[in-house]
Specification:
It is built from 4 helices and no strands. It is mainly alpha-helical. The protein has a domain of 54 residues: lambda repressor-like DNA-binding domains (434 Repressor (Amino-terminal Domain), Orthogonal Bundle). Helix 2 packs across helix 3. It is globular and about 40 Å long.
């Protein structure tokens, strides 16, 4: 899966979908992150204020890579 995010809530949807695809409950993932299930629910609902370190922790546990790249289209070539 490759997706460009334009809004923080999109990331929450991705996290939830990936967690479910891995058959992890919120409690399972929260335990791995040493946070409460309630906090994980808040993150999935609105990840806009999540610290970068926590974002990387969640991504690693879920087997996701975060990539930052410039907006230059992959279809563009330098002449």
């Amino acid at each position: 899966m490759k997706q460009t995010l334009t809004h923080p809530r999109q990331f929450g949807h991705i996290l939830r979908a990936r967690r479910k695809a891995l058959r992890l409950t919120q409690r399972d993932l929260a335990t791995k992150l040493a946070i409460t299930q309630n906090r994980l629910s808040q993150i999935e609902a609105d990840p806009s204020a999540i610290p970068l370190g926590r974002l990387l922790d969640i991504s690693n546990i879920l087997g996701l890579d975060l990539t930052v790249q410039d907006r230059k289209s992959a279809a563009q070539t330098d002449w």
